[in-house]
Amino acid sequence: MEAVMPDPDGLNGVTLLPALPGEALHTRVARTLRDAVTRGVLSEGSRLPGHRRLAAALGVSRNTVVDAVAGLEAEGYLRVQGRSGTVVGVPAMHASVAAPDAPLPLSAWATRALAGGLFDAGGDYAVDFRVGQPVPELYPEAAWTAALARQAGRAVQSHGAFDPLGPLETRRALAAYLNAERGARVTPEMVMLTGGTQSALDALARVFLEPGRVAAVEDPTYPGARAALAATGAAVRAVAVDDCGLRPGALPPQATVLYLTPGCQYPTTVALPAARRAELIAWARHGNAFILEDDYAADLHHTARPPSVMQGLAPDRVILLGSFSKSLAPVTRSGFLVAPPPVVRVLAGTRPLTDRAPGTLDALALADVLASGAYARHLRRVRQVIAHRQEVLLAALAAGLPEWQAQPARSGLHLYARLPPGLPEQQVLRHAARQGVALTPVAPLAAGVHPPAMLLAFAHLTPETIRAGVRRLT
User: Which residues are in the HTH gntR-type domain (predicted)?
Assistant: First the structure.
Protein backbone atom coordinates (compact mmCIF):
# COMPACT_ATOMS: atom_id res chain seq x y z
CA MET A 1 0.00 0.00 0.00
CA GLU A 2 1.28 3.49 -0.84
CA ALA A 3 -0.66 6.19 0.99
CA VAL A 4 -0.08 9.93 0.50
CA MET A 5 -0.36 12.31 3.42
CA PRO A 6 -2.73 15.25 2.79
CA ASP A 7 -1.23 18.67 2.77
CA PRO A 8 -3.47 20.92 4.95
CA ASP A 9 -0.45 22.44 6.75
CA GLY A 10 1.58 23.20 3.66
CA LEU A 11 3.51 19.93 3.82
CA ASN A 12 4.60 18.10 0.72
CA GLY A 13 3.13 14.67 0.13
CA VAL A 14 4.87 11.83 1.96
CA THR A 15 4.62 8.28 0.66
CA LEU A 16 4.84 5.31 3.00
CA LEU A 17 8.00 3.58 1.88
CA PRO A 18 7.87 -0.09 0.82
CA ALA A 19 8.46 -2.51 3.64
CA LEU A 20 11.84 -4.15 4.15
CA PRO A 21 12.03 -7.89 4.92
CA GLY A 22 11.01 -8.52 8.53
CA GLU A 23 10.42 -4.83 9.22
CA ALA A 24 7.84 -3.92 11.88
CA LEU A 25 5.14 -1.46 10.81
CA HIS A 26 6.11 1.26 13.31
CA THR A 27 9.73 0.97 12.12
CA ARG A 28 8.53 1.41 8.54
CA VAL A 29 6.58 4.54 9.48
CA ALA A 30 9.59 5.95 11.35
CA ARG A 31 11.85 5.25 8.37
CA THR A 32 9.38 7.04 6.07
CA LEU A 33 9.29 10.16 8.25
CA ARG A 34 13.06 10.13 8.83
CA ASP A 35 13.63 9.94 5.10
CA ALA A 36 11.28 12.87 4.51
CA VAL A 37 13.14 14.96 7.12
CA THR A 38 16.64 14.21 5.86
CA ARG A 39 15.65 14.92 2.25
CA GLY A 40 14.00 18.23 3.22
CA VAL A 41 10.47 17.15 2.23
CA LEU A 42 9.56 17.97 5.84
CA SER A 43 11.58 21.09 6.62
CA GLU A 44 12.99 22.13 9.98
CA GLY A 45 10.34 23.75 12.20
CA SER A 46 7.39 22.51 10.13
CA ARG A 47 4.52 20.98 12.09
CA LEU A 48 3.29 17.45 11.59
CA PRO A 49 -0.42 16.66 11.57
CA GLY A 50 -1.83 15.16 14.74
CA HIS A 51 -1.34 11.47 15.38
CA ARG A 52 -4.84 10.47 14.22
CA ARG A 53 -4.65 12.43 10.96
CA LEU A 54 -1.13 11.18 10.28
CA ALA A 55 -2.24 7.60 10.96
CA ALA A 56 -5.19 7.97 8.64
CA ALA A 57 -3.04 9.43 5.90
CA LEU A 58 -0.56 6.56 6.11
CA GLY A 59 -3.20 3.89 6.55
CA VAL A 60 -1.92 2.66 9.91
CA SER A 61 -3.18 2.70 13.48
CA ARG A 62 -2.72 5.64 15.84
CA ASN A 63 -0.62 3.48 18.19
CA THR A 64 1.74 2.69 15.34
CA VAL A 65 2.24 6.39 14.68
CA VAL A 66 2.73 7.09 18.40
CA ASP A 67 5.49 4.47 18.57
CA ALA A 68 7.17 5.79 15.41
CA VAL A 69 7.05 9.44 16.52
CA ALA A 70 8.37 8.55 19.99
CA GLY A 71 11.37 6.87 18.41
CA LEU A 72 12.07 9.85 16.14
CA GLU A 73 11.80 12.20 19.13
CA ALA A 74 14.42 10.13 20.96
CA GLU A 75 16.68 10.31 17.90
CA GLY A 76 16.22 14.09 17.70
CA TYR A 77 14.46 14.25 14.34
CA LEU A 78 11.21 15.51 15.89
CA ARG A 79 10.40 17.82 18.86
CA VAL A 80 7.21 18.14 20.88
CA GLN A 81 6.37 21.80 21.51
CA GLY A 82 3.42 21.68 23.86
CA ARG A 83 0.21 22.80 22.17
CA SER A 84 2.07 23.53 18.95
CA GLY A 85 2.30 19.81 18.44
CA THR A 86 5.18 17.90 16.92
CA VAL A 87 7.63 19.76 14.71
CA VAL A 88 10.67 18.77 12.68
CA GLY A 89 13.76 19.24 14.84
CA VAL A 90 16.65 19.06 12.39
CA PRO A 91 17.47 20.70 9.08
CA ALA A 92 17.59 18.74 5.87
CA MET A 93 20.87 16.91 5.48
CA HIS A 94 20.98 16.91 1.69
CA ALA A 95 23.86 14.47 1.90
CA SER A 96 25.97 14.40 -1.20
CA VAL A 97 25.65 10.83 -2.35
CA ALA A 98 28.54 9.60 -4.45
CA ALA A 99 27.69 8.55 -7.96
CA PRO A 100 27.39 4.78 -8.37
CA ASP A 101 30.48 4.72 -10.57
CA ALA A 102 32.63 6.85 -8.27
CA PRO A 103 35.79 4.95 -7.31
CA LEU A 104 36.07 3.62 -3.78
CA PRO A 105 38.98 5.05 -1.77
CA LEU A 106 40.67 1.64 -1.59
CA SER A 107 43.93 1.07 0.22
CA ALA A 108 46.96 -0.23 -1.63
CA TRP A 109 46.50 -3.55 0.20
CA ALA A 110 42.91 -3.93 -1.09
CA THR A 111 43.96 -3.07 -4.63
CA ARG A 112 46.71 -5.67 -4.55
CA ALA A 113 44.42 -8.25 -2.95
CA LEU A 114 41.76 -7.77 -5.64
CA ALA A 115 44.41 -8.26 -8.28
CA GLY A 116 45.27 -11.68 -6.87
CA GLY A 117 43.47 -13.56 -9.63
CA LEU A 118 41.62 -16.24 -7.65
CA PHE A 119 39.35 -18.54 -9.61
CA ASP A 120 35.64 -18.16 -10.21
CA ALA A 121 34.22 -21.65 -9.81
CA GLY A 122 30.85 -20.82 -11.38
CA GLY A 123 29.09 -22.56 -14.23
CA ASP A 124 26.87 -25.58 -14.63
CA TYR A 125 28.37 -28.71 -16.18
CA ALA A 126 27.28 -32.31 -16.56
CA VAL A 127 30.66 -33.46 -15.21
CA ASP A 128 32.79 -31.05 -13.16
CA PHE A 129 36.43 -32.10 -12.80
CA ARG A 130 37.54 -28.70 -11.45
CA VAL A 131 39.61 -28.64 -8.29
CA GLY A 132 38.21 -27.32 -5.03
CA GLN A 133 34.96 -29.29 -5.13
CA PRO A 134 33.49 -30.33 -1.76
CA VAL A 135 33.12 -34.05 -1.08
CA PRO A 136 30.14 -34.14 1.31
CA GLU A 137 29.54 -37.89 1.06
CA LEU A 138 32.99 -38.52 2.54
CA TYR A 139 32.64 -36.23 5.55
CA PRO A 140 32.21 -37.88 9.01
CA GLU A 141 28.92 -36.14 9.70
CA ALA A 142 27.84 -38.44 12.54
CA ALA A 143 31.19 -38.37 14.34
CA TRP A 144 31.56 -34.60 13.98
CA THR A 145 28.00 -33.91 15.13
CA ALA A 146 28.48 -36.16 18.15
CA ALA A 147 31.74 -34.39 19.04
CA LEU A 148 30.04 -30.99 18.79
CA ALA A 149 27.24 -32.18 21.06
CA ARG A 150 29.66 -33.56 23.65
CA GLN A 151 31.71 -30.36 23.72
CA ALA A 152 28.94 -27.77 23.51
CA GLY A 153 28.53 -27.52 27.28
CA ARG A 154 32.25 -27.07 27.84
CA ALA A 155 32.42 -24.32 25.22
CA VAL A 156 29.64 -22.41 27.00
CA GLN A 157 31.37 -22.86 30.36
CA SER A 158 34.50 -21.17 29.04
CA HIS A 159 32.71 -17.84 29.69
CA GLY A 160 34.59 -16.12 26.89
CA ALA A 161 38.07 -16.90 28.26
CA PHE A 162 39.81 -16.82 24.88
CA ASP A 163 43.38 -17.91 24.25
CA PRO A 164 44.62 -16.33 20.99
CA LEU A 165 46.37 -19.62 20.19
CA GLY A 166 43.25 -21.73 20.77
CA PRO A 167 42.30 -24.15 23.58
CA LEU A 168 45.32 -25.90 25.09
CA GLU A 169 43.49 -29.25 24.90
CA THR A 170 43.22 -28.95 21.13
CA ARG A 171 46.83 -27.86 20.72
CA ARG A 172 47.94 -30.87 22.76
CA ALA A 173 45.87 -33.22 20.60
CA LEU A 174 47.25 -31.67 17.41
CA ALA A 175 50.84 -31.85 18.62
CA ALA A 176 50.44 -35.54 19.46
CA TYR A 177 48.80 -36.27 16.11
CA LEU A 178 51.42 -34.42 14.05
CA ASN A 179 54.32 -36.00 15.91
CA ALA A 180 52.89 -39.50 15.47
CA GLU A 181 51.47 -39.26 11.95
CA ARG A 182 53.57 -36.65 10.14
CA GLY A 183 57.00 -36.92 11.70
CA ALA A 184 56.79 -33.39 13.11
CA ARG A 185 58.59 -32.02 16.16
CA VAL A 186 55.87 -30.10 17.93
CA THR A 187 54.96 -29.03 21.44
CA PRO A 188 51.56 -27.47 22.25
CA GLU A 189 53.24 -24.07 22.72
CA MET A 190 54.24 -24.10 19.02
CA VAL A 191 50.66 -24.57 17.76
CA MET A 192 48.19 -21.84 16.84
CA LEU A 193 44.71 -22.73 15.64
CA THR A 194 43.52 -20.91 12.53
CA GLY A 195 40.46 -20.65 10.33
CA GLY A 196 42.32 -22.54 7.62
CA THR A 197 45.46 -22.27 5.55
CA GLN A 198 44.40 -19.03 3.86
CA SER A 199 43.94 -17.20 7.17
CA ALA A 200 47.31 -18.54 8.36
CA LEU A 201 48.99 -17.29 5.19
CA ASP A 202 47.41 -13.87 5.61
CA ALA A 203 48.59 -13.61 9.24
CA LEU A 204 52.14 -14.70 8.39
CA ALA A 205 52.32 -12.42 5.35
CA ARG A 206 51.33 -9.41 7.43
CA VAL A 207 53.96 -10.26 10.06
CA PHE A 208 56.89 -10.93 7.73
CA LEU A 209 56.28 -9.01 4.51
CA GLU A 210 55.98 -5.40 3.38
CA PRO A 211 56.93 -3.33 0.34
CA GLY A 212 60.62 -3.76 -0.36
CA ARG A 213 60.78 -7.36 0.86
CA VAL A 214 60.75 -10.53 -1.24
CA ALA A 215 58.69 -13.71 -1.01
CA ALA A 216 59.25 -16.85 -3.08
CA VAL A 217 56.66 -19.33 -4.32
CA GLU A 218 56.70 -22.44 -6.45
CA ASP A 219 55.75 -22.02 -10.10
CA PRO A 220 53.05 -23.14 -10.68
CA THR A 221 51.49 -22.82 -7.25
CA TYR A 222 48.30 -22.39 -5.24
CA PRO A 223 46.96 -18.95 -6.31
CA GLY A 224 45.66 -18.11 -2.84
CA ALA A 225 49.19 -18.22 -1.46
CA ARG A 226 50.60 -15.98 -4.16
CA ALA A 227 47.73 -13.51 -3.67
CA ALA A 228 48.15 -13.36 0.12
CA LEU A 229 51.87 -12.70 -0.14
CA ALA A 230 51.54 -10.17 -2.98
CA ALA A 231 48.82 -8.22 -1.14
CA THR A 232 51.42 -7.03 1.37
CA GLY A 233 53.27 -5.16 -1.36
CA ALA A 234 56.25 -7.51 -1.24
CA ALA A 235 57.79 -8.70 -4.50
CA VAL A 236 56.76 -12.31 -5.17
CA ARG A 237 59.35 -14.33 -7.08
CA ALA A 238 58.14 -17.48 -8.83
CA VAL A 239 60.60 -20.41 -8.80
CA ALA A 240 60.04 -23.08 -11.42
CA VAL A 241 59.32 -26.68 -10.48
CA ASP A 242 60.36 -29.75 -12.43
CA ASP A 243 59.57 -33.45 -12.08
CA CYS A 244 61.12 -33.42 -8.59
CA GLY A 245 59.52 -30.20 -7.34
CA LEU A 246 61.03 -26.79 -6.68
CA ARG A 247 64.60 -26.22 -7.87
CA PRO A 248 66.58 -24.80 -4.94
CA GLY A 249 69.28 -23.29 -7.11
CA ALA A 250 66.79 -20.83 -8.59
CA LEU A 251 65.75 -19.32 -5.25
CA PRO A 252 66.30 -15.59 -4.72
CA PRO A 253 68.87 -15.22 -1.93
CA GLN A 254 67.14 -12.24 -0.32
CA ALA A 255 63.67 -13.78 0.17
CA THR A 256 62.09 -13.52 3.62
CA VAL A 257 59.65 -16.42 3.17
CA LEU A 258 59.18 -19.33 0.79
CA TYR A 259 55.76 -20.91 0.29
CA LEU A 260 56.20 -24.63 -0.42
CA THR A 261 54.11 -27.80 -0.84
CA PRO A 262 56.84 -30.46 -0.52
CA GLY A 263 54.68 -33.48 0.34
CA CYS A 264 52.43 -33.13 -2.71
CA GLN A 265 53.39 -30.18 -4.88
CA TYR A 266 50.38 -28.14 -5.92
CA PRO A 267 49.39 -28.62 -8.65
CA THR A 268 51.82 -31.17 -10.15
CA THR A 269 51.49 -33.62 -7.16
CA VAL A 270 55.20 -34.56 -7.13
CA ALA A 271 57.01 -35.07 -3.79
CA LEU A 272 60.17 -33.10 -3.02
CA PRO A 273 63.13 -35.48 -2.55
CA ALA A 274 65.29 -35.48 0.58
CA ALA A 275 68.31 -33.86 -1.08
CA ARG A 276 66.31 -30.83 -2.18
CA ARG A 277 64.70 -30.54 1.24
CA ALA A 278 68.15 -30.33 2.77
CA GLU A 279 69.19 -27.65 0.26
CA LEU A 280 66.12 -25.56 1.04
CA ILE A 281 66.67 -25.78 4.79
CA ALA A 282 70.29 -24.69 4.33
CA TRP A 283 69.08 -21.78 2.15
CA ALA A 284 66.60 -20.70 4.83
CA ARG A 285 69.18 -20.83 7.61
CA HIS A 286 71.75 -18.94 5.59
CA GLY A 287 69.33 -16.16 4.67
CA ASN A 288 67.36 -16.01 7.97
CA ALA A 289 64.24 -16.94 5.99
CA PHE A 290 61.22 -19.06 6.86
CA ILE A 291 59.73 -21.88 4.81
CA LEU A 292 55.92 -21.94 4.91
CA GLU A 293 55.22 -25.65 4.47
CA ASP A 294 51.65 -26.30 3.33
CA ASP A 295 50.88 -29.92 4.18
CA TYR A 296 47.49 -29.66 2.47
CA ALA A 297 47.09 -33.24 1.24
CA ALA A 298 48.92 -35.41 3.78
CA ASP A 299 45.89 -36.90 5.52
CA LEU A 300 44.38 -37.85 2.17
CA HIS A 301 47.20 -40.09 0.96
CA HIS A 302 45.98 -43.12 -0.97
CA THR A 303 48.78 -44.81 -2.91
CA ALA A 304 51.64 -44.51 -0.41
CA ARG A 305 52.29 -42.67 2.83
CA PRO A 306 53.70 -39.22 2.02
CA PRO A 307 57.14 -38.26 3.31
CA SER A 308 57.39 -36.76 6.76
CA VAL A 309 57.03 -33.01 7.01
CA MET A 310 60.05 -30.75 6.59
CA GLN A 311 59.18 -29.11 9.90
CA GLY A 312 60.49 -32.21 11.65
CA LEU A 313 63.90 -31.60 10.07
CA ALA A 314 64.12 -27.89 10.90
CA PRO A 315 61.52 -26.67 13.42
CA ASP A 316 63.51 -23.42 13.74
CA ARG A 317 63.09 -22.51 10.05
CA VAL A 318 59.92 -24.28 8.84
CA ILE A 319 56.41 -23.10 9.70
CA LEU A 320 53.93 -25.92 9.12
CA LEU A 321 50.45 -25.07 7.81
CA GLY A 322 47.52 -27.46 7.81
CA SER A 323 43.74 -27.59 7.51
CA PHE A 324 40.95 -30.08 8.07
CA SER A 325 38.62 -28.49 5.52
CA LYS A 326 39.16 -31.28 2.98
CA SER A 327 39.32 -34.23 5.37
CA LEU A 328 36.52 -33.19 7.76
CA ALA A 329 34.38 -30.55 6.03
CA PRO A 330 34.86 -26.98 4.80
CA VAL A 331 32.29 -25.67 7.28
CA THR A 332 34.49 -26.62 10.25
CA ARG A 333 37.05 -23.90 9.34
CA SER A 334 39.58 -25.82 11.45
CA GLY A 335 43.22 -25.26 10.63
CA PHE A 336 46.53 -24.80 12.38
CA LEU A 337 50.06 -23.56 12.05
CA VAL A 338 53.16 -24.79 13.86
CA ALA A 339 55.95 -22.25 14.30
CA PRO A 340 59.00 -21.58 16.45
CA PRO A 341 57.99 -20.09 19.83
CA PRO A 342 59.21 -16.54 19.00
CA VAL A 343 57.01 -16.51 15.88
CA VAL A 344 54.04 -17.86 17.83
CA ARG A 345 54.41 -15.11 20.42
CA VAL A 346 54.32 -12.47 17.70
CA LEU A 347 51.24 -14.04 16.08
CA ALA A 348 49.49 -14.26 19.47
CA GLY A 349 50.18 -10.57 20.00
CA THR A 350 48.94 -9.46 16.57
CA ARG A 351 45.92 -11.76 16.30
CA PRO A 352 43.58 -9.64 18.48
CA LEU A 353 43.65 -6.99 15.75
CA THR A 354 41.69 -9.35 13.49
CA ASP A 355 39.74 -12.20 15.09
CA ARG A 356 40.98 -12.49 18.70
CA ALA A 357 40.79 -16.31 18.84
CA PRO A 358 39.47 -19.33 16.93
CA GLY A 359 35.99 -20.70 17.62
CA THR A 360 36.06 -22.62 20.91
CA LEU A 361 33.39 -25.18 20.02
CA ASP A 362 34.94 -26.28 16.74
CA ALA A 363 38.36 -26.43 18.41
CA LEU A 364 37.13 -28.65 21.25
CA ALA A 365 35.27 -30.88 18.78
CA LEU A 366 38.48 -31.27 16.77
CA ALA A 367 40.36 -32.36 19.88
CA ASP A 368 37.54 -34.83 20.57
CA VAL A 369 37.66 -36.54 17.16
CA LEU A 370 41.46 -36.68 17.22
CA ALA A 371 41.71 -38.14 20.74
CA SER A 372 38.79 -40.57 20.38
CA GLY A 373 40.15 -42.21 17.25
CA ALA A 374 37.11 -41.15 15.22
CA TYR A 375 39.27 -39.14 12.84
CA ALA A 376 41.65 -42.05 12.22
CA ARG A 377 38.72 -44.40 11.51
CA HIS A 378 37.23 -41.84 9.16
CA LEU A 379 40.50 -41.48 7.24
CA ARG A 380 40.86 -45.23 6.75
CA ARG A 381 37.47 -45.32 5.04
CA VAL A 382 38.02 -42.16 2.99
CA ARG A 383 41.44 -43.23 1.73
CA GLN A 384 40.02 -46.43 0.29
CA VAL A 385 37.26 -44.53 -1.54
CA ILE A 386 39.65 -41.92 -2.92
CA ALA A 387 42.20 -44.51 -4.02
CA HIS A 388 39.51 -46.40 -5.94
CA ARG A 389 38.24 -43.25 -7.67
CA GLN A 390 41.75 -42.28 -8.70
CA GLU A 391 42.26 -45.77 -10.17
CA VAL A 392 39.01 -45.40 -12.11
CA LEU A 393 40.11 -42.03 -13.52
CA LEU A 394 43.57 -43.29 -14.47
CA ALA A 395 42.09 -46.31 -16.22
CA ALA A 396 39.53 -44.16 -18.08
CA LEU A 397 42.20 -41.71 -19.25
CA ALA A 398 44.52 -44.54 -20.33
CA ALA A 399 41.73 -46.06 -22.41
CA GLY A 400 40.12 -42.91 -23.83
CA LEU A 401 42.90 -40.30 -23.83
CA PRO A 402 46.19 -42.23 -23.84
CA GLU A 403 48.06 -39.21 -25.22
CA TRP A 404 47.40 -37.33 -21.94
CA GLN A 405 50.29 -38.01 -19.55
CA ALA A 406 48.49 -38.61 -16.25
CA GLN A 407 50.52 -39.88 -13.32
CA PRO A 408 49.00 -41.26 -10.10
CA ALA A 409 49.16 -38.87 -7.16
CA ARG A 410 50.26 -40.11 -3.74
CA SER A 411 47.90 -37.74 -1.98
CA GLY A 412 45.17 -35.23 -2.57
CA LEU A 413 42.00 -35.04 -4.58
CA HIS A 414 43.17 -34.34 -8.14
CA LEU A 415 45.34 -35.68 -10.95
CA TYR A 416 47.82 -33.66 -12.99
CA ALA A 417 47.67 -34.59 -16.69
CA ARG A 418 50.20 -33.12 -19.13
CA LEU A 419 48.73 -32.48 -22.58
CA PRO A 420 50.32 -33.67 -25.82
CA PRO A 421 52.83 -31.25 -27.39
CA GLY A 422 51.08 -28.67 -29.53
CA LEU A 423 47.68 -29.04 -27.87
CA PRO A 424 46.81 -25.70 -26.17
CA GLU A 425 44.94 -25.65 -22.89
CA GLN A 426 42.30 -23.26 -24.23
CA GLN A 427 41.46 -25.62 -27.08
CA VAL A 428 40.93 -28.44 -24.62
CA LEU A 429 38.80 -26.24 -22.37
CA ARG A 430 36.57 -25.14 -25.25
CA HIS A 431 36.07 -28.72 -26.42
CA ALA A 432 35.33 -29.88 -22.86
CA ALA A 433 32.81 -27.07 -22.31
CA ARG A 434 30.96 -28.00 -25.50
CA GLN A 435 30.69 -31.53 -24.12
CA GLY A 436 29.44 -30.34 -20.74
CA VAL A 437 32.72 -31.01 -18.90
CA ALA A 438 34.70 -28.59 -16.73
CA LEU A 439 38.45 -28.84 -16.15
CA THR A 440 41.06 -26.73 -14.36
CA PRO A 441 43.90 -25.45 -16.57
CA VAL A 442 47.39 -25.09 -15.14
CA ALA A 443 48.39 -21.89 -16.98
CA PRO A 444 46.57 -19.52 -14.56
CA LEU A 445 48.51 -21.13 -11.70
CA ALA A 446 51.86 -20.34 -13.29
CA ALA A 447 53.72 -17.05 -13.47
CA GLY A 448 56.11 -18.26 -16.15
CA VAL A 449 55.89 -20.66 -19.07
CA HIS A 450 54.71 -24.12 -18.07
CA PRO A 451 53.91 -27.15 -20.24
CA PRO A 452 50.17 -27.27 -21.06
CA ALA A 453 48.36 -29.45 -18.54
CA MET A 454 44.99 -30.04 -16.91
CA LEU A 455 43.93 -30.80 -13.37
CA LEU A 456 41.13 -33.32 -12.87
CA ALA A 457 39.55 -33.56 -9.43
CA PHE A 458 38.01 -36.96 -8.83
CA ALA A 459 37.16 -37.51 -5.16
CA HIS A 460 33.74 -35.83 -5.36
CA LEU A 461 32.63 -37.89 -8.38
CA THR A 462 31.26 -41.42 -8.48
CA PRO A 463 33.12 -43.95 -10.63
CA GLU A 464 30.27 -43.90 -13.13
CA THR A 465 30.42 -40.12 -13.45
CA ILE A 466 34.21 -40.20 -13.83
CA ARG A 467 33.98 -42.69 -16.72
CA ALA A 468 31.18 -40.70 -18.34
CA GLY A 469 33.19 -37.48 -18.07
CA VAL A 470 36.23 -38.95 -19.79
CA ARG A 471 34.03 -40.44 -22.53
CA ARG A 472 32.68 -36.94 -23.22
CA LEU A 473 36.26 -35.66 -23.63
CA THR A 474 37.31 -38.27 -26.17
Answer: 23-91
